[in-house]
Every structure is written in structure tokens, then in C-alpha cells.
Design a protein that fits this description.
It is a single chain. The protein has two domains: 22-145, Oxidized Rhodanese, domain 1 (3-Layer(aba) Sandwich); 170-282, Rhodanese-like domain (Oxidized Rhodanese, domain 1, 3-Layer(aba) Sandwich). Helices cover 30% and strands 11% of the residues. The protein contains eleven helices and ten strands. α5 (115-126) packs across α10 (256-266). The model is unreliable at 1-15 (pLDDT under 50).
Length: 294
């Protein structure tokens, strides 16, 4: 399998450096009321929808800094996909401007279901920062709990974050194809895109042969919060994904697949991310394409 780094130890799943990947709104509110230093990143983003900055300006967690998923957390779109990895220097600069330092506790959030927040969680960990958590349920959970919001952009003291890439496993097209036969490759897109019945974004419909469909919508409840670990383990086990096998995930452009990686992490299953995902796969006409349910 072509990966940049080995799969992490299953015993490490669920937390890194003693930091659980999720935090609930009441727990975050308590930290902020105690004036515990926390870097808050608002990464609301809508595929094909209004820019996330518009949501941020209407209201955000007090002290939160807006991070643009398209511009700040991904490199320019091209053969590598629609959301390829950013250059380490570029990502380092963005995180420093947002106030992230080497010892910072970072909490990221989006509207509700953690789709875009998970990509930032994954990216920070990939570039060497483990003290990062996702606000489970996002902005919706925060406001529904009655916690305060703000429309003021904070003044941020620049941080000293240093990007050290390669700290999480990634796949390229060759590695994804190999994993689809030798391990378990999960396709995190909606079922109709997986089957090739609908493709609203990329020029070709279908999926990587051998991949198994696991839409990220199945990782969360109607409130946008992640399912309990035992239910996630059961869900992934039904798809053949356990900590006894090499597991990877892809989607359209590596965003919702990061959400799948987070859900697998919560279930105790280490997994690699195919960052280029389908938008990279279809750039090579020699790559095979499957349709239907298998």
C-alpha cells in the first residue's frame, strides 16, 4: 500500500496526546468561562452554497477566527483533486494568523455535523498538532444550549505553530486501488453518487472498484452529533472495517472522507485518507470505474 506514514496503533484511537477528538458545548463553555486558553476556529462551509464567512459574520462563538476551507485548508484545485493538501508553509501561515501555537488547545466547529470541521481536525493532526478537538454538534449545538455568540472579529495574537507534515497516513490513487482489494476502502459519499446514478460535481460518475459505500450521514444523528463509539464500531464492522485490517476512506475531494476518518477514530479503527479522492481518481483515464452497488 502506498502511504506516506504507517497506520497508527489501534490503542491510540479515540484520543491523541490525552486529548479526545470531540468536545461537547457545555464542556467548551466551562473552559471559556474559566478563561482557559483555547483557539477557536470557525470553519463553516457549504458545498455549492453561500460562503461560510457570511455565516460567521452573522454570528459565531466569541473569540472564534474564521478559516476558509477552500482557501486556507486546501491547496489550489487541479490534478491532485479539488481539495488537495495545502503546502506546509501556507498551512503554517494560516494557523499562525489564527493564533495557533505549538501548545495551543484548538477547537474547530462548523454548522452542525462536523463535515468541514473534521477536515481541519485531520489537517492539524497531519501537520503535527494533536491538541485539537471538534465541537460535537457544531454551532447549532452551541446556540441551542443557550451559549453566547458574537459578531465581533477578535484581535488575534499570532501563534508560533510549525507545520510538520506526514503525521497521519495518506493514500494516493495506487494505494487506494490496492487497499480496495487487500483491505477495506470506504467511499464516504452519498449512495447515489457511489452507484454512479448522480454526480453533481466531478466529470465522471461511479466509484473505485472494490470500495464499500459508507455515507458520512450515517456517522451522526439527526442533531449532527456523532453516534456513540459502540454504534460506530457496529456500523463499520458490518462493512468489514475493523482494527484488524488496513482501512482507508475517500469521498469526492477529501473533505467528507476526513469526517469518516474521525468517525473511525472514535470507533477505535485507524484509517488512512485518500486526500485527492474521486476528484483525483478521475483525472487519470486509465483508472477503472465501477457503478452500481459493487
Amino acid at each position: 500500500m502506498n502511504q506516506e506514514s504507517p497506520l497508527p496503533n489501534p490503542g491510540d484511537a479515540g484520543q491523541t496526546d490525552g486529548v479526545h477528538p470531540l468536545i461537547e458545548a457545555p464542556a467548551l463553555d466551562r473552559l471559556l468561562r474559566r478563561q482557559t486558553p483555547v483557539v477557536l476556529l470557525d470553519v463553516r462551509w457549504h458545498l455549492g452554497g453561500p460562503p461560510g464567512i457570511e455565516s460567521y459574520r452573522k454570528g459565531h462563538l466569541p473569540g472564534a477566527v474564521f478559516v476558509d476551507l477552500d482557501q486556507d485548508v486546501a491547496g489550489p484545485p487541479g490534478p491532485g483533486g479539488r481539495h488537495p493538501l495545502p503546502h506546509p508553509v501556507a498551512f503554517e501561515s494560516v494557523m499562525r494568523r489564527a493564533g495557533v501555537s505549538g501548545d495551543s488547545l484548538v477547537v474547530v466547529y462548523d454548522d452542525a455535523d462536523s463535515t468541514s470541521a473534521a477536515r481541519v481536525w485531520w489537517s492539524l493532526r497531519y501537520f503535527g498538532h494533536d491538541r485539537v478537538r471538534v465541537l460535537d454538534g457544531g454551532y447549532r449545538a452551541w446556540t441551542e444550549a443557550g451559549h453566547p455568540v458574537s459578531t465581533t472579529e477578535p484581535e488575534v495574537k499570532p501563534g508560533d505553530f510549525v507545520a510538520s507534515p506526514g503525521r497521519l497516513p495518506v493514500l494516493d490513487a495506487e494505494g487506494a486501488a490496492e487497499l480496495a482489494t487487500a483491505g477495506v476502502l470506504l467511499d464516504a459519499r452519498a449512495a447515489e453518487r457511489y452507484r454512479g446514478e448522480l454526480e453533481p460535481v466531478d466529470p465522471v460518475a461511479g466509484h473505485i472498484p472494490g470500495a464499500r459505500n459508507a455515507p458520512t450521514s450515517g456517522n451522526v444523528g439527526v442533531d449532527g452529533r456523532f453516534l456513540p463509539p459502540e454504534l460506530l464500531r457496529e456500523r463499520f464492522a458490518q462493512l468489514g472495517a475493523t482494527d484488524a485490517l488496513d482501512v482507508g476512506a475517500y469521498c469526492g475531494s477529501g473533505v467528507t472522507a476526513a469526517h469518516e476518518i474521525l468517525a473511525l477514530n472514535l470507533a477505535g479503527i485507524p484509517a488512512a485518507l485518500y486526500v485527492g479522492s474521486w476528484s483525483n481518481w478521475v483525472t487519470d483515464p486509465s483508472n477503472p470505474i465501477a457503478t452500481g452497488d459493487c
